[in-house]
Amino acid sequence: MGRHVPTTQKDVPRMAKIAALSGFPEWLPAERLVEQHVLDVFREVAELHGFSGIETRAVEPLEQLLRKGEIDKEVYVLRRLHAEEGDEDAGADRSRTLGLHFDLTVPLARYVLEHQNDLSFPFRRYQIQKVWRGERPQDGRFREFYQADLDVIGQNSLPGHIEAEVAMVMAEILDRLPLPSFTIHANNRRLSEGFFRSLGFEDHTAVLRSLDKLPKIGADAVRELLINEAGASAEQAEACLAYAAIRTSDTSFAQQVRDLGGSGEMLEQGITELSAVLERVEASVPGVVVADLSIARGLDYYTGTVFETFVAGHESLGSICSGGRYDELAADNRHTYPGVGLSIGLSRLVSRLLSAGMAAPTRTVPTCVLVSVADEAHRGQSDAAARQLRSRGISCEVAPSAAKFGKQIRYADRRGIPFIWFPGADGTAGEVKDIRSGDQVPADATTWQPPAEDLRPRVLAAETQDAAEAQD
Amino acid sequence: MGRHVPTTQKDVPRMAKIAALSGFPEWLPAERLVEQHVLDVFREVAELHGFSGIETRAVEPLEQLLRKGEIDKEVYVLRRLHAEEGDEDAGADRSRTLGLHFDLTVPLARYVLEHQNDLSFPFRRYQIQKVWRGERPQDGRFREFYQADLDVIGQNSLPGHIEAEVAMVMAEILDRLPLPSFTIHANNRRLSEGFFRSLGFEDHTAVLRSLDKLPKIGADAVRELLINEAGASAEQAEACLAYAAIRTSDTSFAQQVRDLGGSGEMLEQGITELSAVLERVEASVPGVVVADLSIARGLDYYTGTVFETFVAGHESLGSICSGGRYDELAADNRHTYPGVGLSIGLSRLVSRLLSAGMAAPTRTVPTCVLVSVADEAHRGQSDAAARQLRSRGISCEVAPSAAKFGKQIRYADRRGIPFIWFPGADGTAGEVKDIRSGDQVPADATTWQPPAEDLRPRVLAAETQDAAEAQD
Description:
homodimer, alpha+beta, BirA Bifunctional Protein, domain 2, Rossmann fold, 9-stranded mixed beta sheet, 5-stranded mixed beta sheet, elongated
């Protein structure tokens, strides 16, 4: 392992063509600070709620990846450049061919089955990893991006209140991100299915398929679809559209649904579940969750609550955080694994935060203090001061050259390093200058402390979000 | 983006064959805590020294990856499963074919050239990412593993003292890991080349190639090689072996080299550089660095100091952290980019930490407190207590079911959760029980604080390392 050493000096890459690869985003150090902040927030909130971090290998057998038929085209298949006869990647045998994972759900299902005897259920896990999809980058889609997932997986059963719990975690994560106002839209499969059944529909999936097109084609066209493709009467179609128009931030959605003719056990169960989600999220992060009965997407997969999240002024991003309950993540001959989870398409979100100027770091480097060097013979003194400061968690660089102090100050200033330290002739005494104010005071390296807000680069939300949408 | 929703319920993976893939390590949650700890230590120390974290895309054009001829076989090549005619991954054109990176040095060189106008030099960066090599897993090698790199890259020039600085960072990282004693072995290209030249060798690479075999074949066989393949006289061969036997923890190596007949400007420069490394690392982390003039590996690539690190009792791991100075990481028509860097093969190290029982987490989950639930009607009360505790950074789970308290205590105990909280009838008052001691006391959720060492799972080094080597 370790560093791979080229065989000869001339093997060092002297590259003729250097070009960005479309679909493979890559950040400069200051931009990476924003991405790292989003990753850190996700991890911190997940761990505060007792979720364990795991990672799965980047590859899965192709045949596992292809179980979801429609996305064949998106999979990147691997082969070793000089695969030998009989190697798992030489032939066309899909059971032995490997592909890069395109999400974290297929790997989670495999991980849970593979390690079920070593995991404690309910298994609370979060997972933040790159995933790959061979999509056309022209569509503004990424071919490599971070996905951040969080799921609670039960063995054979999973209590209903986990749905509200996952929604609370989701609200807390989003609340800590440098976003303008966001809204979590919640719906419930039992509520929708119960409502369409009580209207007399036998095939509620056709109704859902029609309603799913509301944002794109509008109410009039959806009315046509409901009548022509879902077999609705004019009255039924009207009721469906009225149902899908319900949007309440409290539990008043329930009476509205009943007023439209909704009834029955399944519907009432959906009302109870969705009400619990609204109440518990509201208690945790006020003002961010709404019941939105137009949500139809995913209701063929999700079996209880379903969530989508939109950012005000950035609706074109689509849902930045989605999730819900599914009754069967995986199963074998002994057990079924139901779950509740959420997923953030993190790179796309970070890309928007950056391109729209929604978030920026307070400086471009982790360094809080540049320790100056008077001359090379005294570099050891600067080392010692830096060591003292670092021992108390203060990030330091020692100046790379004993240039004139003005040049050392410019080195710090260009990088946004807030302080420069001038070691004294003896021991830990010295002087420290705040580069922004110009104030310079005597200080001791064993006790001096920068203001808490200067200790690390912080990522701040921009105060105005005007015209943010236009920039993307 | 977001969660990929299967089209129908029956598409949910119901897997027939679940098997670990050889060469693709994957950790259980408790093991992942050890890996995460190692990643966190690397990041924390790197940032304390002012290094910026970056990530590069996982893929590079195949023609860039293949510039280092010898490793053709190791590259994983990508293709889209349904690549279309004219796609970059459809044909045999290597300039448009993509492969997974096998280290972080080739990507760094490309990143520096691509972004040179947006970076400040010297550019201090660290990078922790998975890399892939299609090696035979039978050799105990991984096909997917974390590599952690740290480099300082100059534009056209880079001061010599950066070599000692990088060695200090390396010592601090290793010093914070749960390792038994480790030793950083340092040598210097100018010292070795200068010595062999002053002995009269024209081709010092043949000498280095012979000395590189010392650990494997021993002094007698190397003496034969020096005479037969490097063209040494018996006396010269003796001097080379005596040189390679020099190992000092202070700068006394210098006089020993001179006593063996070493002289000249190049050699003296090497002595100065290596002495500075020893002195500055010793001042930073005492007792871990030695001058080891037997190090020959990498001296054809590294142009100044070279480092390797060995762990006592785990020499079979090879060097766990290597690095040095190279005069040309990358170059274009305008600039040359010299650098000093180090690299840790992190997965292999973590694998050994785990298999040899060298490190273990204090618990298997992040959760510090399980908040119990008396009955489902009072779950909101438990939520509120958990919210109070979390607001002060205390990781909480609310019990998944309102089972008998004994069962809830067992839930916590099995996961190593140290505390269980019993919410009181009103507000934030309640009782907290230390599951280990059985002590239960009244507590207020707005003020109660667990002991600092219980706040998060910690990763501790095992106290005895006996027979560790045997277990791997």
